[in-house]
Backbone:
């Protein structure tokens, strides 16, 4: 650095050799870039191929009757009425349970838990670990706990609560990230005019980070709607030709909660049932159900991505 | 409780008792809310404890019936037969084979994608590709099961005509593509967190982009990349629906991906589909199998944690 040492003759390169070195370097770069695009193409083409195969096999089944018919022994008449109604009801339970718990836990971890405090540490470790637990294990938990210990039975309620626990880490992580993106000076300004912690959280932090929280909730729910294994484990039926009792009735008290304890099936299970039949005429029905399921999942994810994009655009700090 | 309890009308300084009362209710309310939020957080802890409690208490009666030695050494798993045998090895071998095939595909694929997106791809490409990969994560696995059984297997059968209709190869390959986005997104985040100054230093002494990517950024981000691999391993080991649909439900002690075999999770699904009475040995066997699965993922996570600590580079 300080003293100019003359380089040994062997390291001195003439212009042609340098040009050659640069050329090989560039060539290798190009080869790697092509490899990168190729690997990306494998991943994305697989997704496209999966989608196309569903579309080709199942499009013929996407008719109005498909949505209003119960499953049937005859493939041509089989529909997904009980499945989509079941999915919808389970999703409501999941949402009611997972949203307050997940957002509450995230607020605790970000705003209330002491930095380095052991309670916060224990909760954080558990949230991280739960995110890595295979989903089928949640099914076993629910089978032991909800179905047999709390005696909820093989019901909409058990399934909804199971999926709520499953998506809890997703909601917590997304909410924490959203809360963290609100700058400290907003908190300080609120405290400065005498707000309590909860006033600061409920009137400033949560409204400002609502977009990010919403994104996390939607992604979590999209995950829940496609989950199959835990719902099979708690004993969802695969052939259901009736609907759970309606939550709204014409007689007082107008609302009833019998549907929570009703047996049910959901879309992915209906699809699984049809796929695993040896009779290949049901495969078209499976593809149709898969198409509906995929459309719902992708639409929810697209919505989440859109909201995230809008929120990023709107941020003023 | 009259005017003092509402926040909109703050008490005047001369109303001293009122003000004390206001502070008291206000603090009480704050404490109450904090307790509720703490409870929400503790649900995660309860869930972990409940998982361990349920698995252990339901599996214990199973081990009263079956000796632990048989469980880990017998190579036959036929709990639902008239003469049941309870050796977990066939299910473990199936699980490891499928996960192995998946990772052989996913690790190179995910790593190359991560390096490409972090170091090579133009901004526009990244903006389009990242959401597309996120979509791949969002697809329900049952859809991939359908794809593995009805598209990938027939395709593979044109190459390997003797491949059975249910096989671990097609399930493993599809799971490999399925977990690729987990590797690529986590590894890319780790690579992008490597300080720009390190890249610039390498460029300044004449390194090419590829040299920077391979010998500067990848080693610097290695702990994050390993974390990505571990995440993929636990996903591949626990993946259920693709295996249950495409790999078959017949437990076999084999590491040959061309065979059909059941994994731990596929076995649990198979048993749960039938109507097993509560507290029967078949019912208990799924909890024993689940316990083995949890311990397996736990081991992978602990190893991953150790590797990350060992190789962590901090700047």
Residues:
């Amino acid at each position: 650095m300080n003293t100019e040492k003359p380089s040994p003759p062997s390291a001195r390169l003439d212009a042609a050799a340098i040009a050659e070195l640069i050329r090989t370097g560039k060539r290798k770069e190009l080869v790697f870039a092509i490899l990168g695009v190729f690997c990306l193409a494998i991943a994305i083409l697989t997704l496209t191929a999966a989608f196309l195969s569903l579309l080709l096999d199942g499009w013929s089944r996407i008719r109005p009757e498909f949505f209003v018919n119960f499953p049937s022994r005859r493939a041509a008449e089989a529909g997904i009425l009980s499945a989509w109604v079941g999915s919808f009801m389970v999703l409501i339970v999941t949402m009611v349970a997972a949203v307050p718990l997940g957002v509450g836990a995230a607020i605790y971890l970000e705003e209330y838990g002491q930095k380095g405090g052991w309670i916060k540490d224990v909760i954080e470790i558990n949230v991280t670990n739960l995110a890595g637990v295979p989903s089928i294990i949640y099914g076993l938990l629910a089978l032991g706990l909800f179905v047999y210990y709390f005696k909820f039975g093989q019901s909409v309620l058990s399934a909804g609560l199971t999926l709520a626990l499953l998506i809890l880490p997703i909601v917590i992580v997304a909410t924490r990230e959203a809360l963290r993106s609100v700058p400290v000076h907003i908190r300080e300004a609120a405290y400065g005019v005498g707000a309590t912690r909860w006033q600061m959280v409920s009137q400033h932090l949560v409204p400002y980070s609502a977009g990010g929280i919403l994104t996390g909730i939607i992604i979590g729910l999209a995950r829940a709607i496609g989950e199959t294994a835990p719902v099979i484990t708690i004993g969802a039926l695969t052939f259901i030709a009736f609907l759970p009792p309606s939550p709204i009735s014409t007689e007082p008290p107008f609302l009833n909660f019998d549907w929570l304890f009703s047996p049910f099936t959901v879309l992915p299970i209906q699809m699984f049932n049809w796929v695993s039949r040896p009779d290949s005429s049901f495969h078209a029905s499976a593809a149709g159900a898969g198409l509906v399921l995929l459309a719902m999942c992708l639409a929810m994810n697209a919505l989440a991505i859109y909201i995230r994009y809008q929120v990023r655009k709107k941020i003023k700090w | 409780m009259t005017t003092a309890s509402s926040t909109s009308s703050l008490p005047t300084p001369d109303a001293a008792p009122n003000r004390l009362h206001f502070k008291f209710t206000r603090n009480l309310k704050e404490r109450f809310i904090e307790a509720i939020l703490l409870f929400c957080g503790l649900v995660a802890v309860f869930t972990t404890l409940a998982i361990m409690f349920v698995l252990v208490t339901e599996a214990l009666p199973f081990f009263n019936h079956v000796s632990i030695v048989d469980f880990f050494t017998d190579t036959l798993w036929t709990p639902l037969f008239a003469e049941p045998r309870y050796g977990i090895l066939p299910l473990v071998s199936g699980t490891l084979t499928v996960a192995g095939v998946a990772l052989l595909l996913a690790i190179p694929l995910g790593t190359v994608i991560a390096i490409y997106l972090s170091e090579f791809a133009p901004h526009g490409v990244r903006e389009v590709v990242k959401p597309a990969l996120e979509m791949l994560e969002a697809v329900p696995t049952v859809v991939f099961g359908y794809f593995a059984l009805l598209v990938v297997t027939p395709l593979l059968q044109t190459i390997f005509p003797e491949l059975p209709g249910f096989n671990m190869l097609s399930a493993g390959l599809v799971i490999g593509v399925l977990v690729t986005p987990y590797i690529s997104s986590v590894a890319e985040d780790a690579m992008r967190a490597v300080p720009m100054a390190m890249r610039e230093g390498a460029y300044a002494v004449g390194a090419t982009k590829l040299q920077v990517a391979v010998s500067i950024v990848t080693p610097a981000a290695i702990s994050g990349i390993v974390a990505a691999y571990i995440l993929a391993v636990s996903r591949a080991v626990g993946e259920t629906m693709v295996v249950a649909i495409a790999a078959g439900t017949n437990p076999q002690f084999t590491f040959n991906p061309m065979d059909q075999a059941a994994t731990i999770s596929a076995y649990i699904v198979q048993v749960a589909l039938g109507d097993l009475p509560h507290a029967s040995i078949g019912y208990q066997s799924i909890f024993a199998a689940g316990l083995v699965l949890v311990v397996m993922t736990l081991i992978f996570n602990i190893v991953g944690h150790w590797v990350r600590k060992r190789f962590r580079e901090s700047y």
User: Anything to note?
Assistant: Residues 1-8 of chain B have pLDDT under 50 and may be disordered. The domain at 89-311 of chain B is CATH 1.10.3720.10 (MetI-like fold).
